[in-house]
Amino acid sequence: MTTKTALVAAAVATLVATGLAACGSSSNGGGGAKGGGTLTIQGDAGNPTLVENFNPFVAATELHGGYLMYEPLEFRSPVDGTFTPFLATGHKFTDPKTLDFTIRQNVKWSDGQPFTAADVVFTFNLIKKYPALDGNGVWAQITGVATSGNDVTVTFKAPNVPFAGVVAKTPIVPEHLWSSVPDPTKFTNTKPVGTGPFTLDKFAPTQYSLKKNPTYWQAAKIAPSEVLFPAQSSNQATNQLDVSSGKFDWSYNFLPNVQKTYVSRSKTNIYWFPPGGVITLYLNLTKAPYNDANFRKGISLALDRTTIAQKAVNGYLDAASQSGLILPNLKKWLDPSLPDQGVVKPDPAAAQAAFAQAGYTMQGGKLVKDGKQASMSIVMPNNFTDWVAAAKEVSTQLGQVGIKASLDLPQFPQYQSSIQAGTFDAAIGGFGGTGDPYTDFNNALNSSFAAPVKTATANNFERFKDPTVDQALATLAAATDPEAQQQATHTLEQVMYKQVPAVLMYYGGSWGLFSTKNFTGWPSADNPYTLPTSYDGSLLLVVTRLTKA
Predict the structure, then answer these.
(1) What backbone torsions phi and psi does residue 145 show, to the nearest 5 degrees?
(2) Comparing 1-5, 254-258, 272-276, 456-460, which segment has the lowest mean pLDDT?
(3) Among candidates 180, 152, 182, which has minimal Cα distance to 168?
(4) If we measure between CA atoms, which residue out of 416, 272, 384, 343 comes closest to residue 3?
């Protein structure tokens, strides 16, 4: 499985990563640019029966190819934050509260009508009028959207330069059709009209297909003539067998021993498992002893992150940097003063010294304060298998330094409720993964999210509060100067490393499996233009870069 910005978001990635089954296979048929052919992508997330809903503002549509029909203005890479232009040719801030997009000309909707800047303004006003469509919280940050000739200007409530990536990824819909939709929140959009490289061809509960849009503004770059999405199986073993047997051009699935189960099956099978986030041990900072930074440092120093990663994900991913940066993705932001790039190595003696600073001593193999052994219950969903494996190893390692750790394995809804309400001791969850340091740090550390215990919050589940961090986040939000951005990011890294508001353990993988039999140009370590996730905007980035084999 993979991880996203926050703990709750990891559920979506996990649903995808639990395996996607298939009916159908790749072919060399079809026409179009660079040879055409069918691109078969491993299934739809959710259930074996597909749901016919192509409303681009519905989460399920993002999962099953909505971005291939409805383009955004730009898409920010979740690897390193670089922008790829689509319906906008670029953006700039004229000041920290004013964002200008230059809208691309000579683009048509798939029904032949011209796309204009007015469609962009209409779309943003639509999600304002119907907040249920504003799943990314755009209007929580902005006050207005206006057009002037070929430009669209977005005005922010407060400086928020990094939020440009969220604004830019909003899918744009045609005013000439959506203006007459009675209730867009209930609109299933079974005949979608977009500007993207594909349009809907055939739909069935077990499989649907998209066909190439001949009027697409960069149609010459699109190699497949068809994209096929078979339904998934609810059985993980079946999913893995389907992937291994070569039924797909592109799969997203965790496979144990990927060399043996996938690569060795065909000379055209390749994989790329880059870090897509950080699997993290969150401690509830409203409770003692977790509210003591020395105790948290002791835990961090006690853990052998390399072994945890080996147990959890077969060693596919490395121990994570405690800087809060996903490396090497965000290496350009790394504070060079952090030792070993912020990776904390196990040091039992240093751990005991930190525990001692928190008032704990080792007595008879137990870490004790006031006659009571340090203990914790670690919560995580019972079907997140790599997290469970990680937690078991964490429990073992903490036991070696005298802490009694137990596992709490509820269903996801109970886990979600616990972390949002702040009623846990410790929790396994995801950190980062947006490609933008500000967003990653803000979601995890901004005190505005630190709601009282038993009051649900969307982020900062550990309930960390530090005025220095809030100031650094405000500085970073308003900074357009690269040096100021770098300095503020370094401040946040130092807090992560020294105060340990969350114990970052190992990188969570993005499980990209590809066949080069029909298409090449997949993202890779040599060309990391996006993560290999097949269920979000990465679909659009990948499909516009593929070439016929």
Answers:
(1) -135, 130
(2) 1-5
(3) 152
(4) 384
Q: Is the pLDDT of residue 276 over 80?
A: yes
- Residue 225 and residue 240: Cα distance in Å, rounded? 27
Question: pLDDT of 295-353, one tens digit each?
Answer: 999 999 999 999 999 999 999 999 999 999 999 999 999 999 999 999 999 999 999 99
For residues 290 and 528, give the distance between their C-alpha atoms in angstroms, rounded to a whole number.
37
d(CA 505, CA 378) in angstroms, rounded, equals 14
Condensed to tens digits (0 to 9), the pLDDT of residues 486-500 reads 999 999 999 999 999
Beta-carbon neighbour count of residue 61 at 10 Å? 21
Burial 438-450 (b: 16+ CB within 10 A, else e): bbbbbbbbbeebb
Task: State which amino acid sits at residue 425.
Answer: D
Round to whole Å and give the CA distance between 497 and 344: 9
Look up residue 18 and give its two tokens. Answer: 């639990």
**How far is 77 from 520, CA to CA, in rounded Å?**
20
* Nearest alpha-carbon partner for 66 in 226, 194, 222: 194
Does pTM top 0.90 for this prediction?
Answer: no
Phi and psi of 82, rounded to 5°? -70, 145
Tell me how long the chain is: 549
Amino acid at 426: A
267: Cβ contacts below 8 Å, ≥ 6 apart? none
- For residue 236, the model assigns a pLDDT of 74
* List of residues 6+ apart from 142 with CB closer than 8 A: 124, 154, 155, 156, 157, 167
Q: Please state, in angstroms and as integers, the Cα–Cα distance from residue 531 to each residue in 44, 328, 347, 365, 438, following that order.
A: 18, 13, 33, 44, 19
